[in-house]
TrEMBL record:
This is Protein-export membrane protein SecF. Belongs to the SecD/SecF family. SecF subfamily. It is found in: Cell membrane. The chain crosses the membrane at residues 50-70, 174-191, 198-219, 225-246, 283-302, 314-335. The gene is secF. Its main location: membrane. Part of the Sec protein translocase complex. Interacts with the SecYEG preprotein conducting channel. SecDF uses the proton motive force (PMF) to complete protein translocation after the ATP-dependent function of SecA. PANTHER family: PROTEIN TRANSLOCASE SUBUNIT SECF, PROTEIN-EXPORT MEMBRANE PROTEIN SEC. The keyword Aminoacyl-tRNA synthetase does not apply. Residues 376-386 have a biased composition (Basic and acidic residues). It comes from Nocardia tenerifensis. It is a multi-pass membrane protein.
Length: 407
């Protein structure tokens, strides 16, 4: 029997070149991945950061509402409303006349309408009959407002009192409508998707209302009945955006518990990125008509109600876009990974990846040793000769050719 042994020497340079020759996967830019929805932003992986940002925004809003309060309009606090044809009068001139006649500043003076139909609207604290008569006389003396026939007439100046009970009634009805809306939303999402998604959506809606109210408190915007109505309208947009993202999350995570490659959070993050451009485009398309409404209401028509409605919609649209992307879905993943089958599945995937990472680290160390010394770890181990009659080791190569018996 003849033993044929063969030895092979490994060149370190050749080994290094082999590994260096492996092509790297193509790397796409941020905006390319953002447009294609292939994971430009790691929203779920960095959800602790987004939680911190969200908590900071909520704390600032609550602090402003508690310590600064709101600038309630005349419909909530009560007061007097005086209106007369503008006919060239400016708001600064009307403020001066009011200040000299009453001794205090008005709450607001604005021009309503445009052209020949423009009128001056004065909102002030509650005035008694004597103060109203004094103010009317001063306004008529200064501006000489004309009636429909074109003649100067004191009846062209109208004065009315607004009770604060009307604003409280509007607020109470709005709160009832809000409660009914939230209940219906929770039931729908729980039935259509799952209860965990309903909890996340409701939390996002509460965030939207709180932050929108906080912005009004910080900036000092006047809170009117149109503001309350506008808050109810922005909830619909926020809910729509959250439902779109949740629908994609449900599609990506369907059957995830039977797969061992990706976790629930990773699939949810993919869903967020796949719908990110859609959310941004929807927000931009929604902002354009709102800005147009504000321009028409303030600069052309001077309608304060339209301005208040457009303002709250603009703020709510931006806040709702943020909450549906960076708060609702991360909160859903945190709830799912807290307990239940999704939590166990995530732990199993992480344990499996940790083992695979350790194995890759060992292979990488062996590769580096081979490239540096020309031999691997297995070559350094002494080989003991096999005793006669001893079975070969598992995986050992035969030492030579066996003689076949010829017949």
């Amino acid at each position: 029997m003849t033993n044929n042994t063969s030895t092979s020497s490994t060149n370190p340079a050749e080994t290094t070149d082999v590994f260096a020759a492996v092509p790297e996967p193509p790397k796409h830019g941020f905006f390319n991945r953002l447009y294609t929805g292939t994971g430009a932003i790691d929203v779920i992986g960095k959800r602790r950061m987004w939680y911190a940002i969200t908590a900071t925004i909520i704390l600032i809003s609550l602090a402003s509402m508690i310590f600064r309060g709101f600038n309630f309009g005349i419909d909530f606090e009560g007061g007097s409303r005086i209106q007369f044809p503008a006919q060239g009068a400016s708001t600064s001139q009307v403020e001066d006349v009011y200040r000299s006649a009453i001794g205090t500043d008005p709450v607001s003076v604005q021009t309503v309408g445009n052209g020949g139909n423009a009128t001056i609207l004065i909102r002030s604290e509650a005035l008694n009959t004597e103060q109203v008569n004094t103010l009317n006389e001063a306004l008529f003396t200064k501006f000489q407002p004309k009636d429909k026939d074109g003649n100067p007439n004191r009846s062209a100046i109208s004065a009315s009192d607004v009770s604060e009970t009307w604003g409280s009634q509007i607020t109470r009805k709005a709160l009832i409508a809000l409660a009914v809306f939230l209940v219906l939303v929770a039931v729908y999402i729980a039935v259509r998707f799952e209860p965990h998604m309903a909890i996340a959506a409701l939390a996002a809606l509460v965030f939207d209302v709180t932050v929108t109210a906080g912005v009004y408190s910080i900036v000092g915007f006047e809170v009117s009945p149109a503001t309350v109505i506008g808050i109810l309208t922005i909830l619909g947009f926020s809910l729509y955006d959250s439902v779109v993202v949740f629908d994609k999350v449900e599609e990506n995570t369907r059957g995830i518990l039977h797969l061992n490659r990706r976790t629930y959070g990773e699939q949810a993050n993919l869903a967020v990125n796949q719908t990110l451009m859609r959310s941004i485009n929807t927000a931009l398309i929604g902002i354009l008509p709102i800005v147009g409404l504000m321009v028409i209401a303030v600069w052309m028509l001077g309608v304060g109600t339209l301005k208040d409605l457009a303002l709250v919609q603009l703020v709510g649209l931006l806040v709702g876009t943020y909450s549906s992307i960076f708060f609702a879905t991360p909160l859903l993943v945190s709830i799912k990974e807290r307990w239940g089958p999704v939590a166990r599945h995530t732990d199993k995937i992480k344990a499996r990846r940790a083992g695979a990472a350790s194995a890759r680290a060992g292979l990488e160390a062996e590769r580096r040793a081979t490239a540096a010394t020309g031999r691997g770890y297995r070559d350094e181990e002494p080989r003991t000769p096999r005793e006669p009659g001893q079975a070969p080791r598992p995986g050992a190569r035969p030492s030579g050719k066996r003689q076949k018996r010829r017949h």
